[in-house]
Amino acid sequence: MYAVHKNSEVFEMLEELRIGNIFEVPKVPEKDKNDPYANEPLRSPALIPSSSTPFNAEPPLSILVDNFLTPNDLFFVRNHLPVPIVDPKKYHLDITVQGKRKSVSFTLDDLKKKFPKKTVASVVQCAGNRRSEMVKVKAVKGLNWGAAALSNAEWSGASLDDVLKKAGIDLESLDMEHVQFDGMDMDPTGAPYGASIPMELARRLKKDIIIAYEMNGEEIPRDHGYPVRIIIPGIVGARQVKWLNKITISNEESSCHWQQKDYKGFHASIDWHNVDFSTVPAIMETPIQSAICEPANGSELEEGADEVTVKGYAWSGGGRGVVRVDLSLDGGKTWHSAELKPNNQPLYKSYAWTLWEATLPLPKDHKGKVEIICKAVDSSYNVQPDNVDGIWNLRGVLSNAWYRVQVKVP
Amino acid sequence: MYAVHKNSEVFEMLEELRIGNIFEVPKVPEKDKNDPYANEPLRSPALIPSSSTPFNAEPPLSILVDNFLTPNDLFFVRNHLPVPIVDPKKYHLDITVQGKRKSVSFTLDDLKKKFPKKTVASVVQCAGNRRSEMVKVKAVKGLNWGAAALSNAEWSGASLDDVLKKAGIDLESLDMEHVQFDGMDMDPTGAPYGASIPMELARRLKKDIIIAYEMNGEEIPRDHGYPVRIIIPGIVGARQVKWLNKITISNEESSCHWQQKDYKGFHASIDWHNVDFSTVPAIMETPIQSAICEPANGSELEEGADEVTVKGYAWSGGGRGVVRVDLSLDGGKTWHSAELKPNNQPLYKSYAWTLWEATLPLPKDHKGKVEIICKAVDSSYNVQPDNVDGIWNLRGVLSNAWYRVQVKVP
After folding, report:
1. Which stretch of DSSP H or E encloses residue B294?
2. pLDDT of residue A34
3. Is B361 touching A (CB cutoff 8 A)?
4. Which pLDDT does position B113 carry in this prediction?
5. Is the complex ipTM more than 0.95?
6. B8 CB contacts (<8 Å, ≥6 apart)?
7. DSSP code of A65?
8. Cβ separation of B269 and A347 shorter than 8 Å?
9. In this protein, which residues make up the domain named Moybdenum cofactor oxidoreductase dimerisation (chains A, B) (predicted)?
10. Domain A289-408 top-level CATH class
């Protein structure tokens, strides 16, 4: 099992790396009490930031296929606001039903000791994963993510179902429309990051939704929600609230900006001058996705190579497992089947990703370069769209066209 | 409510239509006792057959958008074998668990009187809907379906959950892998049509799976499974066994040809010489689908028209509702939003289709013809693929590329 680095260990690692002159340790400025980002955790220098405040970063794409469970310090980071400092001894999770005065609270110790520990391996993917490909069609608003704005981990904690039951709440019989989650990360006005999921999804998933306090067998790192986050497998990362301290059963969706005015999908002729965010639902389950992690785009194969080994990931939302990954080296004229590595989850309740691999003969008429295409198919036989043009949208979300990598063949 | 025509009424209707010289009444041959198709039901002459023995037919595409619930005699027909003649007084449904000797039987009267009547509006779609578009890329095996090999009806009966519970079977605790369904339609060797669904899907859907004895408030017509069929909302028609008389809880999938060696999806470089049907799972839930029902392909708009009203359907498997239908009149350069008619089902448990409509200005540079494109998006933000080439497969199933209609503008 991978060991999570404590802050001090990360610092030592940084020092070691500095000696090797591979990475520069970022200079730690004098702490400014007015700077909400003064107390951010130290991070692995291997992460590639797409923004520093709030901190957002993806690991190198190639490392994703090295581990079925992404190591904690290499797991992609998506923060919307400064990372809060939470005292685990003072932590409590409050659960409320709209219209009822009384809320029920659980301490961290309660969550660990009063409920059976449940574990689920599941992908967290940013809605904007692969946005950088969409940007090439036309500018969009959002972080310029590559294809590594997702990772896969094993999450452990109490199940939402168990905790709600202990709080006297039965989602099956409760006539409410949404389950809201609030975090402890706050914007400058003091409003927390929040999200909600429709009751229908909560009912379907409830035994699989984890109020998580462990990530890959260790405490959840600060960047990923220490001490507690919600894991709602099969749906977009933005709803899986980190630093979770409040659950509200309500007839209303979360009023949070990111639920109401962001992370929704529009067609390509809707832009900022004519968008009406109320016309489509907030993204929950996400569509079938895949990408090639090896070889890297723009890389050069070995001299005289007559075959290429291709590796990557595939994943779909909604618990839909991956049934096929197809590869082409000739622009889609002919296709090859990748070997899928088992993720040991049922096909219709598959929350972890599927890593895959194939070794393919290079076309003889390659003229020094080859484009490798991958596309995946999920258990509903959903496919990825051919081109990014048809799915372009103003926020650059849901970018899941056929993935293409160009390599040189010397 | 639409009245189902009794055989005699259909015959009268045929006579009337004949007088109008619109349709020819097919000659009824002398009955041959050895002909398994000698006792087929009479059918609406409006249906457009794609094969006569077994009988398969779709309604005219344009009528689909006339009714949220497709009238029973216009509902598309997909038969794999001769239609059995079932005496409702002798009918019984047998329920067995693999490895247990005793089975439990229910008569038609039991199903009607011993269980609460549940109703679900749901689409039944043939896996081969829109196969005729795939054929244009390269020949496939299968009926040459247009885009009307699906229809939407309200199905009523006992829920599978209720019936299994009465039979002493609890799917949640039963450690078995599949639920098999057998029909009373038989091949020349005496083997029935059969299918199965994975236990994971049965558990998720069980309250919504209907052992149906009514279709749109009437007895189910013979072509659609009289007296009883299984309705498994959100999945492909092939598993929704008609003339159902046996349910088996088993560790095995149905051994039936159509489960094992048919209705699976492969990539375009797998053809009959190299196919291995065991490598991918049987189609269950189906991907997002949409089509334009009006105007018809090849039709001519009114002289001087400067706009066009477009109508169609959209539907996705797995209970995924439709969040958007996008239309383009300029090859995908610009897109318009269609107005979605509410289907009154929750977005994440939406088994009926969504009918839609839009009136769009014709491009000024139309040069006498316009291509109308539609593509839909489901609640998992799955999209339709741009082109049929990338999804071509040897059986011509899962044909759901952007739908295109050419119209003349005089």
Report:
1. strand B289-294
2. 84
3. no
4. 98
5. no
6. none
7. G
8. no
9. 282-409
10. mainly beta
